[in-house]
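It would be a great kindness if you could assist me with a short task in structural biology. Thank you for your consideration; the sequence and its tokens are set out here.
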Amino acid sequence: MREIRSKRRDQLVSIIIPVYNKVAFVRETLESALGQTYPNVEIVLVDDGSSDGSYEILKEYFAKYPDKIQLINQKNQGVSVAINVGIAAAKGEYIQFLDADDLLSADKIEKQINLLECQPESTISTCEWQIFHQNPNKAMSIPYQVFQDFDSGLDLVLTFWNYQEMLQPASYLSHRTLIKNAGLWDESLTINQDGEFFIRVLTRAEKVLFEPNGKVFYRKPGEYNVSQQKSEKAMASLLESIQSYKKEIGNLEDSQRVRIALKKVYQKFIYDVFPQFPDLIKQAEAHIHSLGPLPKTQIGGPKFQLLSKLVGFKNAIRLKRFFM
């Protein structure tokens, strides 16, 4: 019989924040973490070789809250390495990830802890995430299908893939056992490290509980960040992460519903890279073929799906890009 956690309020939550050159935003993020209504939190700050003054801000907060904050400084090695260092240092029974420019609503952790009390360690909690530019009070809501409970982590994963949706990493609150069982973040990936990691977490989650009131506020990235994620190297890394999905899910369930959902992931990849990277498109098409005979599937909104049926998928992309 699985051990069920007793209802108590003393469980430590570790908020892991990797920091690299976020001097304009990190104060606001730290105040968000420190302002949680749930009292028993530690903040694990991992500075990944910042050169813009971020580390000086982190030192200031560490000096002010030495009993609340762990501060780690390392040479620049990338976000996945920084997060893995943070996981190793974390002392909490629960793990909360938070990017250094994003925010949590004050009640986010408390409300998720309330959901997870008396649940097995294999249960994970999620919440809504909203997009903002400067003012989180003006954040934009997105009507995602994933903002609900799921009977299993796999059901949430398939909803991601079927509807081309996602959860921002800070939306989750996970027991450290789930994190340990999933393994570390893949340090070889340059994009979608969080997506690949949480697929592994969710395939080990027996239940997903959605918290409707707590929120994550995701700061929309600047143009520089977006352009970096559109390079051929980044897109090759994205395709590699999708292959990791396929392997991970295949070990859990190899069914038609899984293959159909995976096909949509590859279709979305082709949509994202078409027509810039023909070699990557050919690889994605070969991966679709390897899934075996499947029904025709469409991705995107209703208008794009209709256009795809009329003129074909790639022609629909061409037309959409032409009129954008």
Q: What stands out?
A: Residues 1-8, 223-227 have pLDDT under 50 and may be disordered. DSSP finds 13 helices and eight strands in the chain. The first strand starts at residue 13 and ends at 19. Residues 226-323 form one domain.
